Amino acid sequence: MSNEHEESIVSERAKEGDAEEDEHSVLSMKNILWHGGSAWDAWFSCSSNQVAQVLLTLPYSFSQLGMASGIVLQIFYGLLGSWTAYLISVLYVEYRSRKEKENVNFKNHVIQWFEVLDGLLGPYWKIIGLAFNCTFLMFGSVIQLIACASNIYYINDNLDKRTWTYIFGACCATTVFIPSFHNYRIWSFLGLGMTTYTAWYMAIAALVHGQVDGVEHSGPKKLVLYFTGATNILYTFGGHAVTVEIMHAMWKPQKFKYIYLYATLYVFTLTLPSSATVYWAFGDELLNHSNAFSLLPKTRWRDAAVILMLIHQFITFGFACTPLYFVWEKVIGMHATKSIFLRALARLPVVIPIWFLAIIFPFFGPINSAVGALLVSFTVYIIPALAHMLTYRTPSARQNAAEKPPRFLSSWTVVYVLNAFVVVWVLVVGFGFGGWASMTNFVRQVDTFGLFAKCYQCKPAVPPPTKTH
Fold it and tell me: Region (Disordered) spans which residues (predicted)?
C-alpha cells in the first residue's frame, strides 16, 4: 500500500511539473527572460556559476603546481565535485519525497541545503550545514567583489582597487531585487557566454603573445605553494553550494542528477586550454600575478574580456548571495512576502558585512585557496558524502530510497567506498595540507600588504625624475 501511495505522489508531482513547464513554455518576452526552470536553465546556471573569476587565477595555480599537476588536479577535482553535487541532488529528492508524503507544500518556500540536512539527519546537522554553507557563500560573495575591483583596475587605474571595491559593492547590492533562481534565466545564459569569451581570449592572446624572454616553468618548487594551488582548484570545482536552490527552481528537480557533470565537462573546455596556455607563455612570472589580466597585453580584446568578466562577477555575486538572502528572509519572517520591493529592502543588511570583508581582505587569489581549504572542503565535499552515508545507513532506508545508486556503480557498497574516499582525501589533502598551505600563504599576504590594503598587487609608483644640476 505504501508503494502505491509513493507512486501516486511521484506521479502527481510529475504532472504538476509538466503543468508548470507547459505554463511557462508559452512564448512571451517575460517568460523567455525571467521564468527559468528547465534542465537547460539549470545547466546554464551550473556552468556559468562554476568558474567565474577563478578562471583568472587558474594560471597562477599552474605556476604553483606545474603543468602536469595542474591538468590532473583539474580533472580529478572536477569529477569529485560532480559526484558530490550528485549526492546533494539525491538527498534533496529524498527529503522532498518524504515531506510530500506528509503533505508539506513548498509552493511559497525555497528548500535549502540546511533544511535537507535537518529533515534527513536532525537539528545538529542543520546547524553544521547552516554554519558552513552561509560562511562559504558569504566569502564567495566577498571574492566576487575583490575580483571586480582587481579587474576594473586594469582598464582604469586612476582609482585604486579599494575605491573600486566601494563602487562595485554598491552595484552588486542591486542583486537584492532578483527574487530567486527562477529569475536568472537570461543572466545565466549571458554569464556563460562571457566566461567562454574570456577563456578563449586568454588562450589565444597567450599563444599570439608567445613565451616571454627567459621563461621558466620551475613549479612545483615549495610544498606551501603546491597545496595552495591545489586548494584553489578544489575551490574552482566546489561552486555547488547553491545546488539545492537551483534544483528547487526547476520544474522537474529529478532531472538534475547529471547536470552538474555535464556542466563540468563543458567547463573543462574553458579552464584547461586557458590556464595551460597562459602558464606556457608567462611561466614563473605568474607567481607574483594572481590575476592573469595583469600579464596579458592591453588591447581592445583584453578590455572587452575585463568588462564581460565584471558583468559576470555581478551575476555570480547574485548567485552566491541569493541563498543568504533566503536564509535572512526566513530569520526575519519575510520569506513569503510577495512584494519585490519589501524583500529587497529586507535583504540589504546581508550585503553590508560582505562589502566590509572585501575591503579588509583584498587578496585576490590567496583568499580563494583559504576559502577552498577551510570552507569548501566541508561544505561541498565532506558534509554531502557523510550525509549520504548516514541517510542510507540502514537496509530499510536503502530499500525505500527515492533514488537508487546510478547505473555505472554496481551496488550500495561501491557508493559507500567512494564516499569514504572523498571524506578521507578531502579531509587530509584539502583541509589538512591545503589549510596549512593556504593559511601560511594568506598570512604572508597580510604581513606583506597589510589589512585594508589600498591596492593589492598594483603597479609600483614611478618615482619623480631627479633634477640634475
Answer: 1-22
Residue corresponding to grid cell 593556504 = 438
pTM of the model: 0.85
State the first-to-last Cα distance of the chain, in angstroms, to the nearest integer.
102
Q: What is the pLDDT of residue 119?
A: 93
| pLDDT tens digits, one per residue of 182-207 | 778 888 888 899 999 999 999 999 99
Distance CA 61, CA 48 (A): 20
**Residues 45 and 184 sit within 8 Å (Cβ to Cβ):** yes
Residue partners of 299: CB distance under 8 A and separation at least 6: 205
- Segment among 67-76, 150-159, 452-461 with least mean pLDDT: 452-461
> How many Cα neighbours within 13 Å face the side chain of 257?
11
Q: Which of 143, 142, 162 is nearest to 152 (CA)?
A: 162
d(CA 295, CA 285): 8
Give me the pLDDT at residue 22, please: 47
Instruction: Look up residue 390 and give its amino acid.
Output: L
Contacts 24+ apart (CB under 8 A), 335-344: 335/108, 335/109, 335/110, 336/108, 336/109, 340/177, 340/179, 343/176, 343/179, 344/176, 344/177
CA distance 430 to 422: 10
> What contacts 387, CB < 8 A, 6 or more positions away?
87, 91, 117, 120, 121, 125
Tell me the C-alpha distance between 208 and 210, whole Å: 5
Residue among 211, 208, 229, 212 nearest 220 (CA): 229
Q: What is the pLDDT of residues 274-320, one digit of tens each?
A: 999 999 999 999 998 888 888 999 899 999 998 998 888 888 888 88
Euclidean distance between CA atoms 58 and 83, whole angstroms: 22
| DSSP line for 195-261 | HHHHHHHHHHHHHHH-PPTT--------HHHHHHHHHHHHHHT--GGGHHHHHHTSSSGGGGTTHHH
Which residues, in sequence order, are CB contacts of 383 under 8 Å at separation 6+? Answer: 117, 128, 129, 132
**Average pLDDT estimate for 172-178:** 89
Q: At what angle do helices 161-172 and 123-152 cross, to 10 degrees?
A: 130
Hey, what's the cell of 238? 566546489
Rounded to the nearest 5 percent, the helix, strand and coil shares of the chain are 75, 0, 25
CB atoms within 10 A of CB 166: 14
**DSSP reduced 3-state for 299:** coil
